[in-house]
Amino acid sequence: MPKYGNLDLALTVKPNDQNRLRYIHLIKENLIVIVNKNNPLSKKKSIKFEDLRGQKFIFLADAFRMQDMLINNLHKAGIKPDVYYKSSHDLKLVYDLVELNKGIFIFVED
Predict the structure, then answer these.
(1) Residue 82 to residue 42: CA distance in whole angstroms
(2) Which helix (H) or strand (E) holds 58?
(3) pLDDT by residue (tens digit) across 41-94?
(4) Which of 4, 37, 42, 98 is most buried, with most CB under 10 Å away?
């Protein structure tokens, strides 16, 4: 139940509390890995989470639920992410850090 009033619908990422809520996929998005062109991953046509072992990561802040999903998938692949930087929302800074080869960034495809 919403804190203030009624709510019939919410557009969100997969909710944590799936026992009290029903969620239906509206769209499924592909994840992309943004890497420096000198990073060996840049030569691959496709990448699995297991391929990300040994990389430094640039994440969005914890407030973005996507980060939980990424970390869970990395853990399933046996990877404890080495986080170089967490950005609150500044994608320009994130891309600059990737360009400087400070880490890789995982995001949703447009």
Answers:
(1) 19
(2) strand 56-60
(3) 999 999 999 999 999 999 988 766 778 889 999 999 999 999 999 988 888 999
(4) 98
Give the residue among 58, 51, 92 at the shortest CA–CA distance from 74: 51
78 Rama class: left (phi>0) / alpha (psi -120 to 50) / beta: left
Distance CA 21, CA 24 (A): 10
The pTM for the full model equals: 0.75
Which numeric CATH code is attached to 31-108?
3.40.190.290
| Cβ-proximal residues to 28 (8 Å cutoff; 6+ apart), any chain | none
Residue 96, CB half-sphere, CA atoms under 13 Å: how many?
A: 6
- Domain range annotation of the chain: 31-108
Q: What is the DSSP letter of 97?
A: H
